[in-house]
Structure formats: structure tokens, C-alpha cells
Amino acid sequence: xxxxxxxxxxxxxxxxxxxxxxxRRHRAGRPGSSDVQRRGAGTPxxxxxxxxxxxxLLAVGLVFVVVGLFGAAVGAARVARQQVRVAADFGALxxxxxxxxxxxxxxxxxxxxxxANGARLTGCRLDGLDAVVTAEVTVTPVPGLTRVATVTxxxxxxxx
Length: 160
Known about the structure:
There is one protein chain. By secondary structure, the chain is an alpha+beta fold. The protein has two helices and five strands. The longest helix is centred in the middle third of the chain and has 46 residues, at about 50-95. The chain is rod-shaped, with a radius of gyration of 41 Å.
């Protein structure tokens, strides 16, 4: 074997790749070899990390989106239920205020008030001086999912 001089002037054998006193590793016989090793080279998982954290982050983001959509759907259903409840209550009060004029006039008044409150009158009748009004609101909390909220209210004079 022949001896070669390294960068610090010491002699070494050809093909040797050991570290010298200056801390640099020498690779003889490899043209274009570098003193800098790849980051992560030599570890058991080197080269196998290909975006696993990105996939996990996307999955967590998808869970947040689904939970948000579910919350929005529940909120929309609750708002629709409250809207139809108010419409039916006011419609029953309007119908009861016109009960002495007859069922046709009372239900016409109830229908006007129910529509003004964003609902649809589905039933109206007089029970003595009490007006019984049924109203509904159609809600679509999520595209493709349509529900109907229905409420029946009764209003009339106070009985002793």
C-alpha cells in the first residue's frame, strides 16, 4: 500500500477513512466525496419519513371541519324550532283575538301573522274561544338534509 499525505500533512494509507486529530473524516478513493453527511443518514428510520405528520394534521383538520358542520346543523335546527314556536304562538294570539268574528276570520288573521314570522300555517281551528294554530318551518342545516320543525300553540281568554 502506498502512503498519501492528508490535508494536515500527516501520511496515511490509501483507502483509509478514519478520523484524524483535526476532526475531519477523510474518504480516499472516492471522487466527489463530501465531508458533510446527509441529515438523518444512519438512523433506522432515515428515508422512511415521507409526510406522516402532514397526513395526521390533515386528519385533525378534517375532524374539526366535521365537528363544525355538525355544530352548525344543530344550531340551525334549534333556530328553526324557536322561529316556528314564536310564529305559532303569535298566530294563536292573533286568531284568538278574532275568535268572536268566526273561524274563517280568526284563521285568516293567524295565517297572516304566521307568514310574517317566516313560517307556514298548516292547521288552524277554533275550540270555543281558543285558537289552536299549527305552524311549520322547513330547515336545511346541511346540503342534502332537509327537516321540518312543527309546533302547535293554543291561545284564548283566561278562564276563572
